[in-house]
Amino acid sequence: MAPPTPSDNDDVFAAGERVAVLLPRPLTTAYDYRVPDGLTLATGDIVRVPLGPSAMSGVVWGPGTGEVDDTKLRDVAARHDCPALPAVLRRFVRWVADYTLADAGAVLRMAMSIPEAFEPPAPTSAIALDPDAPDIRLTPARQRVLDAASEGPPRPAAELARQAGCTPGVVAGLVSQGALAKVTMALAPPPLPEHARPGVELADDQAAAAAALVDSAAARDFSVTLLDGVPGAGKTEVYFEAVAEALRQGRQVLVLLPEIALSAQWLERFRRRFGVAPVVWHSELARGQRRQAWRWIAEGVAPVVVGARSALWLPFPDLGLVIVDEEHDASFKQEDGVIYNARDMAVVRARLGAFAAVLVSATPSLETVANVGRGRYGHLALAARHGGAALPDIAVIDVKAEPPPRGQWIAPKLRQALEECFQAGDQAMLFLNRRGYAPLTLCRTCGHRFQCPTCSAWLVEHRLLGRLQCHHCGHRVRPPKACPECETEDSLAACGPGVERLAEEAAALFPDQRLLVAASDTVTGPKAAADLVRRIEDREVDLLIGTQIVAKGYHFPHLTLVGVVDADLGLSGGDLRAAERTYQLLYQVAGRAGRAERPGRVMLQTYMPEHPVMAALASGDRDAFTEAEQLAREVAGMPPHGRLAALVVSGKDEAAVDQAARELGRTAPRPDGVHVWGPAPAPLALLRGRHRRRLLMRTQRHIAPQPLLREWIQRARLPKKVRVQIDVDPYSFL
Hints:
With 734 residues, the chain is α/β, with parallel strands linked by helices. It is built from 19 helices and 33 strands. The longest helix has 15 residues.
């Protein structure tokens, strides 16, 4: 069944009339309810309705369908005291449900993720000076509290205590003695960015690009522009000018970042440019902060929001610009629940709302490059680093010819470069995109390998945390003293390096240098990320050893050497995008080396120096690599020159999964221009205790896969205990 079509009109429904209410559950249709006496509703209103023995919140989607008999019709319980869901967002929900073949209610749930925000926040309790305060005995701590209270607006007791450097008990004592008074305060809106505040002085090419983006933002019409610039070219400062233009018009702006928890430097740039911080949206925020942000955005008082992909579903009443920074990044693809690519959906959001979208990258995705080539997207190029800084020199180390010493991972040439870097007083970074100490642990006696009991994956040793862990389901155990297979003690061996093992080697080689490991295990949120940035900027770190979280957007002026320990990691496995993703990642990593007057060096350790990715990085010819990849994809009919859709059949009963997969293979569509592969076991054939089989459908670019997929699923007779997950435009093939 197709998702319900929302009404684009501001229909008003009086008491006694039927309304269709879409609920944030995996439902394909809206349910009919009656407007009760004393209530008037409009399309988009967020309401509370009965559902079975309980109640839940949903959205008035339009007039009722009339499919429910009057005698069975139930009344809407209440309308929430919050702004209605904007018409553009309702159309966006329908569009995404159509495109991804997800239930409309499941898509709506992403736009209603904070139900407690549907009611206004209660006034907060604050502390202020009492003008009628009696004379009391003052201690130094009490005096500090009174001084702090006299210098600003009323504040919560805990905040006042922190500012005065005392315990909350001191504040409570002053309240009880009448020196301070409790007052109630409404929640203040966030401060407004100063759009007229001057930005940094732009070079000629930057100014031209900024002027073009300003024109796009001012046009109040749909457009997509790729801002394509080398690392250090000042792309952020350029698109800030478009942000300023949208703010001049009184419209809201959304900036999507792939690693919002690691955005300390970006937020500081924003503060310098606009005088205040933007509203932030990501999963690391406390529930109360998310409630506050959702409410500000819905009420239109949050001018600029920076967030992860989920920020795309926030209820902006007047969104006028969306920017997708690092548009190529894989983390914009959501793989669970409703499967979508936030980059592509941001473009759809802009088209439905008739405003500009800006995609930003030093290594644009092949899909974006193809859209530029077809004339669908504009293109602005920044070919040089800001301030005349040179791009780093990139050298390839063939570790077949010049291997590291046995049991080590840093090749002699890279070790020598690190010594020279430290002698010059500069900072260096070693990059290895593998968390933990070792990717595999086995028994030297019998060869037993430690595997996750619920996934087709080896357990990764995390020596610092003292555990073996699955990076797919989170299963963890403490390393045993003896092999569980042959019971030999002290026979376990770590195979291959992770960043922890690399740090161990580097500490032995360079005992006088200060090391820091940066991975998602050690940098666990915004505060940890900000501290990481501060320590590097303050020269408290000589050698940074990190995974991909250190590859994006950072600017460290004294970091002049980057060594990539296993540049081939990611090239194997037959993944359609393996070469593209590896090139993008290594190019971004290389961009961390050398800024301003300090030239940078990059050294790539590889077993495949002749690989096109390594050759392109060494030559600096990004466009030649992109063109070769485009040609290979075109010959194969693969995206962006064809279209893909994946079906993943999963369940706890392996026989039922195989039966369903065979049925899908038997009933697969086979018209001209369509090809179906499979079923076959997924690379992760067991994930979180569920057996998995994959089928892959490729269509020519002009053939929409969605109608074929709908008919295919409806035609196949599938056991109830299996689940079929559809991924239109798959990005991962695990």
